[in-house]
Amino acid sequence: MDRLVAFTVCLILVIALNSAEFSAKSLDSNINVIVQNVTFSFLNGDKEVKVLYPLIQEQLSDGVSPKVAILHKLGDRINGDRLITTAEGSWTYSSPQNIKLTLNYPRSGTGLVVTFLKVLVSQSTNKGRGYIISGGIGQRQLTVLIEADQTLYFKFSAEIYGY
Questions:
Q1: 136 lies in a domain?
Q2: Using CB atoms within 10 A of its CB, is residue 69 exposed (0-12), middle (13-18) or buried (19+)?
Q3: Cis ω on the peptide bond leading into residue 106 (within 30° of 0)?
Q4: Element (H, E) at 106
Q5: Which residues lie closer than 8 Å to 114 by C-beta, 6 or more apart?
Q6: What is the span of the domain harbouring residue 147?
Q7: What are phi and psi of 107, to 5 degrees?
Q8: Cα(115)–Cα(137) distance, rounded to whole angstroms?
Q9: Looking at the domain assignment, is residue 27 inside a domain?
């Protein structure tokens, strides 16, 4: 387990040091979107990282098409909440890539209380995961990591609800 944590820490460090940032469309410019193309990793067991909590994942494709839609979601819509921010983006690659999408809400300051998160991802493989890195439901901050492995394209649409 320690090796897995060390690997995760190193992977996050590599991503942070070797990332390309892209802007995304946003409802209120209060969400920060970072998409990274990960080409290598290394191990460093000296760092600590929070446990990553998996999101609920539903594969929406029929398994026949080369396009795979994966819905990552967390929490539930509640009476009185509203859409507080959105983000979307799309990229195509000439060779398979390992992609890391980081969504940070709010971009700065204090956000509204988060009740529900939905991230719909389209990619060319069914290899992908979603994690909460910090914050979460019932909190005023949320950082989400979405991974897509060996994909030729990556498209996402994210919605965060709250009050």
A1: yes
A2: middle
A3: yes
A4: none
A5: 75, 84, 105, 135, 136, 137, 138, 139, 140, 141, 142, 160, 161, 162
A6: 2-40+50-162
A7: -60, -40
A8: 5
A9: yes
Domain count, the chain: 1
The torsion region of residue 109 among left (phi > 0), alpha (psi -120 to 50) and beta comes to left
pLDDT digit string (tens) for the chain, length 163 residues: 454 444 444 444 333 333 333 334 444 556 666 666 543 333 334 433 344 455 666 666 665 556 788 888 899 999 999 999 999 999 999 999 999 999 999 988 899 999 999 999 999 988 888 889 899 999 999 999 999 999 999 999 999 999 9
Give this prediction's pTM.
Answer: 0.69
What CA–CA distance (Å, rounded) separates 154 from 61? 15
116 is a domain residue: yes
Assigned domain for 45 exists: no
Question: How far is CA 120 from each of CA 12, 56, 147, rounded to the nearest angstrom?
Answer: 22, 12, 12
Q: What is the DSSP string of 52-94?
A: PEEPEEEE-S-SSSS-EEEEEEEE---TT-EEEEEEEEEEEEE
